[in-house]
Amino acid sequence: PQEVEDQVTFPLSTGLQGLAGVKDVRVEGMPQADWVLVDAGDVVVHLFRPEVRSFYNIEKIWSGGPDTLPS
Predict the structure, then answer these.
(1) Which of 13, 44, 59, 69 has the greatest count of CB atoms below 10 A from its CB?
(2) Taking the alpha carbons of 70, 32, 1, 50 in that order, is the dihedral positive or negative?
(3) Is the whole model's pTM more than 0.70, yes or no?
(4) Strand blocks (E) in 1-71
């Protein structure tokens, strides 16, 4: 979890603030780091541990278009 913060979420959030001029970047899901969400307003980044990504299978939800969305 600390590695995720040091190597991914901190550089990502500071980069968005510095390079893109985003004023408010929120990070959720730390310290567990199973599913971390970086919310920069117009841009949202999801970071998953491999086993969590497999469990939620996000790609399947979005791969087939509107008829595959949960109701």
Answers:
(1) 13
(2) negative
(3) no
(4) 26-28, 35-39, 44-48
